[in-house]
Amino acid sequence: MPRDVHVACLLLGVQGVSAELWPDGFLSIAPENQVRIEVSWKSNGPIKKLPISKSVVRACSPDKSKEAKVCLADGAWLYSGSYLRKGAFAAQVEGSVIAIIADRAALVNGLRPNNDDDSLFTVNRHSLPRRYYPVRITLTMPSSQ
Q1: 142 closest CA partner among 92, 77, 97, 82
Q2: What burial class does residue 69 get, using C-beta atoms within 10 Å of its C-beta: 0-12 exposed, 13-18 middle, 19+ buried?
Q3: Predicted TM-score (pTM) above 0.90
């Protein structure tokens, strides 16, 4: 699946940004590299939608001394596009499409504060449907925003 997403992005004219050129944070992502991500699901009424940032919370403080149930900051995500590793597309090998932590193999990176420690983040169970309920993840690419 990551390969299919990347091919679609290339066909749309969206180019990845290599890790060496990533901006310092999500607020510095150039408009041509900004991706919006939304999660949606069917409900008894209208389809529910929210930015993917609302589906993830910081599980504890960076020093892990206390709980800190705060959602990720809203904003754009970086289309990084992954890379080739030993002739193989890294995102495909690892199955990495969207990453909260800095992940060179992922197609899309969040670039949020403390993105070097994945133990800080967890699912926001209060904003999403029950476990295993089907959801749709929608990426809105720069050329279509």
Answers
A1: 77
A2: exposed
A3: no
